[in-house]
Design goal:
By secondary structure, this protein is α+β, with helices and mostly antiparallel strands. 30% of the residues lie in helices and 22% in strands. It binds one RNA strand through strand 1, strand 2, helix 2, helix 10 and strand 21.
Length: 593
RNA sequence: GGGGCGGUAGUUCAACCGGUUAGAGCACUGGCCUGUCACGCCAGAAGUUGCGGGUUCGAAUCCCGUCCGCCCCGCCA
């Protein structure tokens, strides 16, 4: 660069600078060489500006400009000139001016980019991740990372205003048998022992509450060694918080304020106050899902009772085995063709493991066209009409299966069809609390297990039920849902060791196992633990929703593939034998190079 | 662990029912061009059709296996 320094950003030069000498730097976005005059669009983080090389202005600069290629790094000194009326480019923010270059310094050359540094240019995900640096130069990732930055700044400010203190917790923590698979870190000083990277700061923040920090927060990295999804990465960021001496209402108040501040300051989104609330039960009944997008107007109807005594074996059988029968009515559905129904059926069979997809179409003449109608009595048909509000033009989809499965399938259809048919209320943003989750559920072996995590406190009035009817115990758990995505979840925690023990007992832990797995936690609760509760936002998911991104990979600077690899840095990688020796580790089957 | 979709030039894609020299746009290289802005024109180079095996007179194409990317189930809050 020599002694020359930037005076302006490319994107911020406008007509008011005409006549000024400026120094700008950036990447050669595109070059248009007319032999005589050469145009280069110069790009920096703020935007693009056209720089012009004329032989009559500087023979030397003009000649060097002939060598410039895409993504070369340039520094130029020149004079801002107004473009003539015919040459103004209205598509460019800086299209009214250009810079007549007097001096060009080529700061670096560059190998040709594998794909165009443009908004639209499509590229395979593997290519994008291998050439992540080029992808990061493009507007979508630039925007997403800017949202990320603004959101963390906004949340920190909001935490500050609400009296929270940021406290860091260890990344080298202890492995826990519960929850997700841990990432293990071998200890050099303790051969054969391992640290675990935290799945979340859950336990540590509870210990901070016992320690007397009444309002804690942290923007914390978390690690879970589980299979990836579009909305799940091996490592991710949680906005973690915990408060002492509060009930559910006080926590929700804080969450509401944080969500409001974050969405406003990061994306200019104004959310309606107060956030609506829905019970878990209602969400499952109406939407088949505990994170409903309530902008979609279609709703499910439960017909289990109707088919409990039916002669239709396929449905009756499901109910007899403890399943449910639910229906997704779609009115005015003439636009859905028979082949579309077949496509939906094969979709739910293949992708979601459905046994089939029952459907009834009521034609305009009132006739029922359906593969299943012949199994239904007149009374059943009348009852279906009554409960689903079916009428000519209606299309009814049915699932008879285990509750989780039937709901999962129909809620997916609800979203797909709702979006495809435009059955939406037109709001861009939908936010709500889902509350009153059950504390326990049965796993496939019939053993009671926790729905969220073992520290969730029950509702006070449900505590007696722990002895008598644990499945009916409601937890203090709450979720924040935005546009059908779970932004995060939280609860009040058990601050009394006796209640915590009682819950662990219901979960099937012996005294010995309790001590083994949760001993230090139970001990901590006996040191004078205050009532406390908190929450953790999935920060990446929040950015994903605000940036309208389809995948977490589009809101993270350096994401990993579905198989957990970083294609840019080539991680994970084998390590030198000496490194393993030092850690007292022997690899059973080393990967051949 | 399971199901699905995909993998052809640097890149985005094409190539009929298995058929003779695997094509095109962009990018790249060389040349021309003084008002373009996805500049234009001329010429050129560029391929282990992911990899391995099989069927066949002949395979990008069909079969088997395997690797990689993505979506989903399981798993995970």
């Amino acid at each position: 660069m020599g002694t020359l320094r930037r005076s302006h950003s490319c994107g911020e030069i406008d007509a008011s600078r005409v006549g000024d000498e400026v120094v700008v730097a950036g990447w050669a976005h595109r070059r248009r060489d007319h032999g005589g005059v050469i145009f280069v669009d110069l790009r920096d983080q703020k935007g693009l500006v056209q720089i012009v090389f004329r032989p009559e202005t500087s023979t030397e600069a003009h000649q060097s400009a002939g060598d410039v290629r895409s993504e070369w790094v340039l520094l130029v000194r020149g004079v801002v000139e107004a473009r003539s009326a015919e040459t103004v480019n209205s598509k460019m923010v800086t299209g009214e001016i250009e810079i007549n270059v007097h001096e060009l310094r080529i700061l670096n050359s560059a190998t040709p980019p594998p794909f165009a540094i443009e908004e639209e240019a499509g590229a395979d995900e593997a290519v994008r991740m291998k050439y992540r640096i080029h992808d990061l130069r493009r507007p979508p990732l630039q925007r997403a990372l800017a949202v990320r930055d603004r959101l963390s700044t906004a949340l920190r400010a909001s935490f500050g205003r609400q009296g929270f203190m940021e406290i860091e917790t260890p990344m080298l923590a202890r492995a826990t048998p519960e929850g997700a698979r841990d990432f293990l870190v071998p200890s050099r000083l303790h051969a054969g022992s391992f640290y675990a990277l935290p799945q979340s700061p859950q336990i540590m923040k509870q210990l901070l509450m016992v320690s007397g920090f009444e309002r804690y927060y942290q923007i914390a990295r978390c690690f879970r060694d589980e299979d990836q999804r579009a909305d799940r990465q091996l490592e991710f960021t949680q906005v973690d918080l915990e408060m002492s001496f509060v009930g559910v209402e006080e926590v929700l108040e804080v969450l509401q304020q944080l969500t409001l501040d974050g969405c406003r300051d990061a994306a200019g989104v104004e959310l309606p106050m107060p956030f609506p609330r829905m019970s878990y039960k209602e969400a499952m009944e109406r939407f088949g899902c505990d994170r409903p997008d309530t902008r979609i107007l279609l709703e499910l109807v439960d017909l289990t009772d109707l088919f409990a005594t039916s002669g239709f074996k396929a449905f009756r059988g499901a109910v007899d085995q403890g399943g449910i029968v639910k229906c997704l009515p779609v009115h005015d559905a003439d636009g859905v063709s028979r082949s579309e129904i077949d496509r939906l059926e094969s979709f739910v069979r293949k992708e979601l493991g459905a046994r089939g997809l029952g459907w009834i179409r009521i034609a305009e003449d009132g006739e029922w066209r359906s593969p299943i109608v012949k199994f239904l009595t007149d009374e059943e048909r009348a009852e279906i009409v009554k409960q689903t509000d079916a009428r000519p033009g209606s299309l009814l989809f049915f699932q008879a299966d285990a509750p989780d499965k039937a709901n999962a399938i129909l809620s997916r259809l609800r979203i797909d069809l709702g979006e495809k048919l435009g059955r939406v209320d037109g709001r861009e943003w939908d936010v709500l609390f889902v509350v009153d989750f059950p504390l326990f559920e049965r796993d496939d072996k019939g053993q009671l297990t926790y729905v969220h995590q073992p520290f969730v406190a029950p509702l006070e009035e449900d505590i007696p039920l722990l002895e008598t009817d644990p499945e009916a115990v409601r937890g203090t758990h709450y979720d924040v849902i935005m546009n059908g995505t779970e932004l995060g979840s939280g609860s009040l925690r058990n601050h009394r060791a006796d209640i915590q023990r009682q819950i662990l007992k219901v979960l099937g832990y012996s005294d010995e196992e309790m001590k083994q797995s949760f001993g230090f936690m139970l001990d901590a609760l006996e040191l004078g633990a205050p009532p406390h509760g908190g929450f953790a936002f999935g920060f990446d998911r929040m950015v994903m929703v605000l940036a309208h991104a389809e995948s977490l990979r589009d809101v993270v600077a350096f994401p990993k593939t579905q198989r957990g690899q970083d294609l840019l840095m080539q991680a994970p990688s084998p390590v030198a034998a000496e490194s393993l020796d030092e850690l007292s580790i022997r690899v059973r089957a080393p990967k051949p190079e």
